[in-house]
Specification:
With 199 residues, this protein is α+β, with helices and mostly antiparallel strands. It has a single domain, classed as NADH Oxidase (3-Layer(aba) Sandwich), CATH 3.40.109.10. Helices cover 49% and strands 15% of the residues. The protein has 9 helices and 4 strands. A 4-stranded antiparallel beta sheet has the order 1-2-4-3, sandwiched between helices. The longest helix has 25 residues.
Length: 199
């Protein structure tokens, strides 16, 4: 399937078959997500994978009654990470492992440290959440490419969800992607023509 067909034909799926998605398929989806674009390649996100019913019920309590999280095979909780010292250190290690020259590593680390250090806590959170939403596109399109249904969710209380999942304060739930084998076609896709989105 070509990428253009994935983005044209994918639909939000809220009803799922009762069979679980194999863990190796979920791992393949996570591989797709981890290759998402991010500013300065910092990848300021963490993903909590939920597949047991008890935890899905806890998450449901934070979602204003959106049933898809109860009936999906897996729910991916995409969280904005604001622990920038750790994020930058992780990037430096990854760059070294990839053979990036030392001078480039040093300049990237210095710039990232200054940039994020000059931000307020609210600005750091907003910036991380923006990066999560980029990864969200890979998550839903990646699921469809693997033959899965998925639904992106942003209607939930992140504080309640974070507490229910026992997340550290440095992680803020930003989006949920429910995943499973589709038990419906989903609503027809309605998109504006290109002429309507140009200024």
């Amino acid at each position: 399937m070509e990428f253009k067909d994935i983005v044209r034909n994918r639909r939000a799926i809220r009803q799922y078959e009762p069979r679980p998605v194999p863990e190796d398929v979920i791992q393949e989806l996570l591989e797709i997500i981890r290759f998402s674009v991010s500013a300065m390649n910092l990848q300021p996100w963490k993903i909590k994978v939920v597949s047991d019913q008890e935890t899905k019920e806890k998450a449901f309590a934070a979602t204003f009654g959106l049933e898809q999280i109860r009936v999906c095979s897996h729910a991916l909780i995409l969280c904005a990470d604001v622990d920038y010292p750790s994020i930058i250190a992780r990037l430096e290690r990854a760059m070294a492992a990839a053979g990036v020259p030392a001078d480039r590593r040093e300049s990237t680390v210095a710039f990232a440290t200054q940039l994020t250090g000059d931000m307020t806590p609210d600005q750091r959170l907003a910036w991380s959440r923006e990066q999560v939403h980029i990864a969200l596109g890979n998550a839903v399109n990646g699921a469809y490419s693997l033959g899965l249904g998925a639904c992106p969710m942003t209607a939930f209380d992140p504080t309640v969800l974070g507490r229910a999942l026992g997340l550290p304060e440095t992680l803020m739930p930003t989006a949920i992607v429910t995943v499973g084998y589709a038990a419906e076609e989903g609503a027809p896709k309605v998109r504006h023509p290109v002429s309507d989105i140009l200024i």
